Structures
1.
Amino acid sequence: DSGVTQTPKHLITATGQRVTLRCSPRSGDLSVYWYQQSLDQGLQFLIQYYNGEERAKGNILERFSAQQFPDLHSELNLSSLELGDSALYFCASSVSGFYGYTFGSGTRLTVV
Amino acid sequence: AQKVTQAQTEISVVEKEDVTLDCVYETRDTTYYLFWYKQPPSGELVFLIRRNSFDEQNEISGRYSWNFQKSTSSFNFTITASQVVDSAVYFCALVPGGTSYGKLTFGQGTILTVHP
């Protein structure tokens, strides 16, 4: 157990739907990062939060949004889902990038 | 902008062979951190090593070793006497320094298959 908890582990949904992925960071980590891993794009950075504030944005679609709550857990919301959104979504947390990043086990999203 | 290149898409070896995974990076930052992660078939990302740009010492951990050469912007990973359990996708990644909150930039990954 890495200490970063992601739920659900698997999600199957239809095109056009909306889903929410949840991440609980490792105890003491203030930063949360979301990554998307698809077959053709590799591991792509989506967004980062630090202590509730958005810090950095990567290749995140407008249909996607995220937030970090006061208890530091984070949610990634994906809406108007398309087949191409099918991927493994990882959450990572860190105290500081200097010390590395701990990844959760991921949420595998399948859009049908 | 940062870039990490893992030119080897797939490598196939027989058990007990040594194998080296290449990683070349690009960054304008003078301070940065390099990482290797392992992704076994189960899918999770497992941290292997972190190296900062000021520390060019090679590192050995059991059968794993890492060779960091700033002059060639490379951070290669060698597995000695490979085992079937080493079969996985291996990712090299970089984060720029100067901020504590930087994001990881990953290479495309190298699929390593170790045959018995």
2.
Amino acid sequence: DGGITQSPKYLFRKEGQNVTLSCEQNLNHDAMYWYRQDPGQGLRLIYYSQIVNDFQKGDIAEGYSVSREKKESFPLTVTSAQKNPTAFYLCASMREGEGNEQFFGPGTRLTVL
Amino acid sequence: GQQLNQSPQSMFIQEGEDVSMNCTSSSIFNTWLWYKQEPGEGPVLLIALYKAGELTSNGRLTAQFGITRKDSFLNISASIPSDVGIYFCAGQLGTGTASKLTFGTGTRLQVTL
């Protein structure tokens, strides 16, 4: 089955530790995106990547880093510089030329203790 | 970053009732998307709209792209318990993978028997 997978589903970390969230897609989509969702709010864009080895900052990139070494993978690192990292993190992907439809993974809930 | 105004914030309705929610923006968009999110999951795309004035249906769901390009609405007819969730609108100005989505704050729908 084609789709987007995120792992793990739940993640707990101590304050001050870096943590990496995984996002993999087998849809052959060109672009991948990371969003953050806080309770009662919409989605805010952290980083996105249109092609391999290239990525752009979104609206709330501070305290986060990404890499795009392979088309199917776009991991997100939440660094200790992120002041309020506890949130629900969503990865999405989109194929160039197929309208503007982004498809989402199931999400990772990160809790920093 | 901008977020769209989505209303109502929440709705409590009885099974069988029709539902209407809308999204407004101070900026114009070329695309409107409607997503549904269930607790602890990623958003799922329901309907995509690409042309001002366009009216599109997907089963019991109907959505319209406002003629001013600054608004969109989503109707659900004859609601059922599995319609429960949070519905998000998203607007996009450009096309392709470089053009970012702007999300609404969500409408939480509860359906009682």
